[in-house]
Amino acid sequence: MSLFLSGLTLFIQGKTVAQTTPPASLVGSQQLSQPTLPTVQYADSLFPDWEKITLGSFPGLESSGQFDPQQQPLHTPPTFEPVKTWNQGDKPVQVLSLGDFTDSFKLQEFTMEDVAGITGIDVDSITLDKFEPVGFQDVKSLTEAIPSLLEFPIAQVPPIRDLLLQNLGPGGFDPNKTVGQTLAQAPQLGQLRMADLPLDKYKLQDLPNAKIAQFGAFKDWSFVSIEGIPTLDAVPFAKFPQPPTGPDTSPSSSGIVDIAFGAAESDRTRTISGSNVEGYNVPCKEGCAHIELAGSDSILGKGWVSGKYQEVRGGEGVLAQVNNGKEPTGRNPFGEGFKVVIWDISEPQGTASEAMFFRFCRRGTPDLGCTPYFLGPIPFMTFKETGNIYLGKVDSSSGGSGAYSTPTQIAISERQQAQQQLKSPNPKSSSAIRSENSKSQNSSQSATAPGTNSFIRPSNNSTLSSILPPTPDCNKQTGGVVLDAMSQALSQIEGNYDSVGPYVCDSSKNCGRALGSHQYMSYRTDVRQSIESKPGGVDFLKLLDKGQPITGEQAMQYFSPLDQQQLFDQDAQSLIDKASREIDPTTGQPFTGDRLLERVAQMHFGGQGVPIDSNATDVFGKYSVKSYGETAAGNYKNAMNSMGCR
User: Model's pTM, two decimal places?
Assistant: First the structure.
């Protein structure tokens, strides 16, 4: 499935989401060049020396590509959509963003002063065009990231001073007033964008205390590229707020590469490879190139299957559908920041190489989750037979109980060639077979990289935008209510797009499950119509009606985020229209403002006829009608702020 070894288009259930363009020389099963990474000895195994390895240590990517669901430019302006573009030779730090490591390395907890303390850069001399978070801000969000700015006179904050001069002229404001006083007088000035300044003319010291603000305090921080933080790519992994997982002390964490096997192997049920979705003991049926391990009883005879030859399910949330939900089989011995995969295997030479794969994540509201680990391969480490290899914590179970991994196209091809050689009247030795396989790939696999073909599905020329909801829009309103903000407000209570509720029945004996970010019941006519329109939807409804268990992935397949958002928009417009015509008992007037938001949420919760401000609760007893409305109204304000709506 190598994104960097083939000229292919990636698809999500038939929907184009990324295009890669490789150099002509990178075809077939050409082996990766191996970098020399600093290592330390641990329990007889080589362990990466995280005190010396940085994100900038890794070589450039081996092809060009783009991951662009809605064909939007990368940072103009940032949206909640994952948008990535890269060229051959670009370093991973040019592609990866802070948000891709939200849960793993927690880079958002760094300040520029923290980074400077590690790398030695003169933090005060950094120009603002090099410190990417500033370019994403307006004056209001900048003061939210650096609250002390409000206390400084405008004359002492050159970028804000010049932004006001540019828009108001010399006499349009009092430079001796504080930033806070000026914004209190004219809140609309908070909308002025920092990107409208020549940021290369200013230094970080021109924004007092900017160097001690956590990156995560800035609006849209998750979209900031690693390269967009000066010298962050030179910070050793060991210095990250949450470093890679340290050496596991159990005997099974280190093993011996006993034998390296090629793709002719089959029926490997005792494995230590897989994914954080399927577990790390996924069995392999055919094309099972792997290294067999020796060592403690819990790993003796088990195999670490090559991700160049086998794929497994990966990812979480909406973005789990990227790459058709697949990633190379492997392990996460150092945590969730990246995946380690056995890649090239040479049975004649008795060697195996490891590669790294990264993923893209989009946390926040809405939480889209993370893609499978598909950004790679990036050369990591190499091993020889009888050499030790670090494995991380290994599950002691025997494995083989789940679904088999999926063979890649190169696994199928190499296995077929090996079988043909064995049937030949003058069969060659296995070494000769593997040698010929290696040579033959340049012609037989010239358009197919290892592991890619199983991701390819017939395209209908649509994009990920046909399953993801549209970018939040402050201008999409009904009765003064911003629909996308209301949607986020309710989803913060109800769940994510892949949420599935318990099987329940109402007083009219309608039975089903609540689905998605707004927990629409599966027995609703409009929900059923949406599901029935999909191939296989009728059968899926039968499962729901019978109370059969279903997964979040199945729910999104038949009731996609886009379906959910379209239904919400229709539903919300109807509720807002009805609520605005009702009389608020606290004022004697029609519902408006926050009370309108509360009433709309109440009707979403209890139905259009639910009594106003009722203390009745649902079957779970967590919210009353009244408290649900109040909570939703509070969430709405937060959503408006996060969306930048005024």
Answer: 0.68
